[in-house]
Automatic annotation (TrEMBL), chain B:
Keyword Secreted: yes
Gene Ontology molecular function: cytokine activity
Entry's Gene Ontology cellular component terms: extracellular space
Disulfide pairings: C8-C100, C54-C106, C55-C108
Function per UniProt: Immune regulatory cytokine.
Predominant cellular place of this UniProt entry's protein: secreted
Name of protein: Interleukin family protein
Assigned protein family: Belongs to the IL-10 family.
Family matches, as Pfam families: IL10
Keyword Secreted recorded: yes
UniProt keyword annotations, A-Z: Cytokine, Disulfide bond, Secreted, Signal
Compartments reported by the entry: Secreted
Amino acid sequence: SGELYCSLPNPRNVHFESINMKNVLHWSAPEGTGDGVLYRVKYAVYGVGKWIRKPECRNINRTWCDLSRETSDYEEQYYASVKAFLNGTCSDWMETTRFNPLTDTKIDPPMVRVSSTDKSISIILTAPEKWKRSPEEVSVSLLQVYPGLQYNISVLKKKTKKRWFFSISNNTLVVPWLEPGTAYCVSAQIHVTTPLLDSDFSKEHCIATLKDK
Amino acid sequence: KIFHLGACRVSMSMAEIRAGFTAIKANIQSRDPIRTLSILSHPHSLHKVKVERCCITHHLFTFYVDKVFKHCKTEDSFVNRKISSIANSFLSVRRKLGQCHEQNNCVCGEESTEKFKQILANYEGLNVTTAAMKSLGELDILLDWMDKS
């Protein structure tokens, strides 16, 4: 169909929201438009000469579109764009800024597992996996994506509220010389120095050291 | 961060350069309206070409020092300060890479030479200011590629 005369207000705040490289396009409805607005989405690989329509996001009424599959190559950068339609008229195409999955994603905290002896706590951390198309697809740890990935670990002695911080590159830590029969709480964060990316701290995992034999 | 580029070892304040670029990325990239062409990634992504890392890094740092930073003046003093800070970092790395080059530790093979010729052709296909601003907006492509080693 030929291009309509587009007098509809534009979709607003068109942007990617990305967690562990699950890259979802979000936007806000055009100002002053009630229900009934439909949207179309297209995307482009930066430096490649064509825009590609996303069929699953054609004439949708929601204000998001999952483009994870289309932006899964994190060695490329992308643009995406949204157009609104209502009662036979339309808006302009509204674009994102340039999206770099490698630097613009947010990383989840690591998974934390703890065990204890009478005088020590062992902590095993697992970095989250990169988003994948299907469960059958081979998992890629973010550790492979970010070679400089490190872990910051906080250990809190509940009784005295004394807290220690550790920074490690491998994924295991043993904290020695602890008090037997005492509760400790562990929380961990992922830290990538370059590009600079920090996850939130994980929720606390509390465990008690065994009582003295 | 120490980069091992073949026989060449170069230390570089990557986090500082990254922080400087991140602070001006949206501003610089918004000045580049051309979505369909890339200086570094056209026709093939830097990541996908088998090149000698020292050679390409040396060529690209020379490219940015000689052909990019000096043509990227803006009306925004904050942006200009960030650009000159990045440029100074590039200048010192380029000097170290030059020493490696002189000691024949930074050899260029055919693919590297070809890739760099393509980058120059992409650059010269646009007017200087447009090409320089686009190249600056692609700095993260170079930094991402360097970080991957």
